[in-house]
Amino acid sequence: MKPSLKIISVAFLAAAVCGALVQHSALSNVHQENHKLRGESEEVQRLARENAEIERLRAENQEIEKLRLETRDLHKLRNEVRQLREQKPEFDKVRALNERLRTLRTGATGLAAGAQPADRITKETLSALAGPDFTSPEATVRTYFRAVRTGNWNEFRNCFSPEIRQAMDAQFEEQFPESAKQMSARFQSARIAAKRVVSADKVELGLEVVLEEDAPSSKLTVPIKRIGSEWKMDEKMF
């Protein structure tokens, strides 16, 4: 073989070897880059999963906080409802007391001198009464004078509290018709001149009773108390 051909052959062989080496190096670089990219992709996926988990945990924490606030408000509402239930009987008592006081305040005055007349009772007004009435202190007083005028023992007796009725013995009942007849003959008029509220269930009425024509009036203070839904005199008048 000629020297020039050998040189050319060696050159081609060297070029081939160099090309193979370059190609091998390039493939190695590609593999390394591919491995690097695969690692970065896995890291990105891992970070994405972690971010998703963080978002889920944040949402759960928000829900837990919301539930905690709602539970706190629920406990607060339950406590308020319990307190209102416990206070309701007291509220009912106060409301009932206010209603009684409002009723008793109507026309109420002290027993001081010069108090203005609140009601007047005459033979004519007693005749107009339909029957016994104990729904107010004033109605009980009118019923009392009506029972005296008609001589009705049961109606007269029912004007008083149980304690006073118990003190009315058989002799008192026996004498009542004659006593009532005499008093009815003398009776001219009576005036409820004043009213003093002692408590929600007790009042005092100031009466001016005229038993003789042109005679000065007799001034009486009559205690009357509420028993159930009725008002009863707690002291004998005469």
Could you characterize what this model shows?
The chain is an alpha+beta fold. It has two domains: 105 residues, no CATH class; 125 residues, Nuclear Transport Factor 2, Chain: A (Roll), CATH 3.10.450.50. Helix content is 63%, strand content 16%. The protein has six helices and five strands, in the order αβαααααββββ. It has a five-stranded antiparallel beta sheet. A hairpin with a 7-residue loop joins strand 3 and strand 4. Helix 3 packs across helix 6. It is rod-shaped.
Q: What does the secondary structure layout of this molecule look like, with pairings?
A:
Blueprint: H1 3-105, E1 119-122, H2 123-127, H3 137-150, H4 153-157, H5 162-167, H6 170-186, E2 189-199, E3 202-210, E4 218-227, E5 230-233
Antiparallel strand pairs: 1-2, 2-3, 3-4, 4-5
> What is the string of SSEs from the N terminus onward?
HEHHHHHEEEE
Helix content class: 55-70%
Per DSSP E runs of 2 or more residues, the count of β-strands stands at 5
Strand order of the largest sheet: 1-2-3-4-5
Number of domains: 2
Stretches where pLDDT is under 50 for at least 5 consecutive residues are: 107-118
* CATH architecture field of the largest domain: Roll
Strand content: 15-25%
Overall pLDDT: 81
Gyration radius (Cα, Å) is 54 Å
Largest sheet: 5 strands, antiparallel
The end-to-end span amounts to: 171 Å
Supply the number of helical segments: 6
Q: Per the principal axes of the C-alpha atoms, what is the gross shape?
A: rod-shaped
**What is the CATH fold-level name of the largest domain?**
Nuclear Transport Factor 2, Chain: A
| Structural class by secondary-structure content | alpha+beta
In the CATH hierarchy, what is the class of the largest domain?
Answer: Alpha Beta
